[in-house]
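Schema walk-through. Below, the input block comes first and the output block second. Nothing else is stored per chain. Lengths vary across the set, and this one has 296 residues.
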Amino acid sequence: MANTVLNGIITKISGGFYYVEAADTTYECKARGVFRKLGITPLVGDFVEICVFDDGYPSIESVHKRKNALVRPALSNLDILIIVSSVREPLTNLYLIDKMTAAAFHKNIEPVVVFSKADLADADEYVRIYERSGIRAFSYSDKDRSGLEDIKEVLKDKTSAFCGNSGVGKSTLLNALFPDLSLLTGEISDKLGRGRHTTRTVELFKRYGGYVADTPGFSTLDIERFELIRKEDLKFAFPEFDPYFGKCRFNSCNHLCEKGCAVLEAIEKGEIERSRHQSYVRMYEEVKDIKEWQIK
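--- output ---
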């Protein structure tokens, strides 16, 4: 029997082995040594070519071009980033959500915001802020499963990852979406006011015609450390600013506090959410003095 060459997707990496789904089978593969010499590290989500040998482990022969990649979690080719934020326990922090939506847009990933624990407080105003900003947003209550069908629709035929700070109900939502996976859920620590990370590895699960990943400890800390956006590029990570580009008095306008800024005028008219612009300004101030070599 001749060696067989197949195209597939890496669904898990563990113990130096790469688990590749190809031709309705999952293969436990090794990566070719040449990848290390070339500085290529295969990631979960990579589309790859593997060779299945008559004897020995199948090997990854090549990694196809990625459309995007995250540093932490190490994950590639995402279509959707679902950002989970609770309305209570812990309280909603719009700035943290905006940092994650900006990072997603910068990586050419569509962000979707889910406000969990909607049975504890009204999430409608939060949903409205993001819908008016051109971002899909939903509320979810684990008590009556309201919003679950809307989230399932988002996942169809896409590769998606869920992220959010500890204790916001990310794993609880995943369990409601995929009860057969029996994912662990974290518990809120009353003393600390935050949850414990419970997931350990990144793994893609095939669901709803696409793939979904649970991401261990993926939170705003990872965004701050690994997904910095240059100050020149930051405005493009806020899509609601787009209609106003080129309309400012000065071509060099940074949309911070300048006179004649079309973005600021739009805020005063209620066309852009003030909280979103406040997040933009705060993010700009954080990165304005960062050197080029510090941006990965």
